[in-house]
Amino acid sequence: MAERTMTDATANAIQEALNLAKDNGHSIAEPMHLAIVLFAKDDSIGARVVARSEPLKGAIDIHVIRRGLNRLLLKKPSQTPAPLEASLSSSLSQLLQRATVAAKANGDALVALDHLLSAIYEDKLVKSELEGAGLTKKVATKSLEDMRGGRKVTSASAEESYEALDKYGIDLIKEAEDGKLDPVIGRDEEIRRVIQILCRRTKNNPCLVGEPGVGKTAIVEGLARRILEGDVPETLRGVALRTLDMGALVAGAKYRGEFEERLRAVLDECKAAEGHIVLFVDEVHQVLGAGKTDGAMDAANLLKPMLARGELRMIGATTLEEYRQHIEKDSAFERRFQQVMVKEPNVEATISILRGLTERYEAHHGVRISDAALIAAATLSDRYITHRFLPDKAIDLVDEAAATRRVQLDSRPEDIDKLERKILQLEIESTALGREKDKASKQRRRMVKEEISDLKEELAPLKAKWEADRGRADEIKSIKEKLASLEAKAATAERMGDYEKAADLTYGAIPDLRSHLKEIIKKEEVRRAKEAENPESVSTVSEVVTPMHITEVISRWTGIPVNKLSQTDRERLLKLDERLKHRVIGQDKAVGEVVDCILRSKAGLARMDQPTGSFLFLGPTGVGKTELAKALFSELYDGDERHLTRIDMSEYTEQHSVARLIGAPPGYVGHEEGGQLTEAVRRKPYTVVLFDEIEKAHPRVLTLLLQLLDEGRLTDSKGRTVDFTNAVIILTSNIGAHVLLEEGVPKDEVQKSVMRQVRSHFSPEFLNRLSAIVMFNSLGLDQLEKICHKAMTGVKRRPSLAGGC
Question: Which residue spans adopt a coiled-coil conformation according to this UniProt entry (predicted)?
Answer without folding.
Answer: 416-496
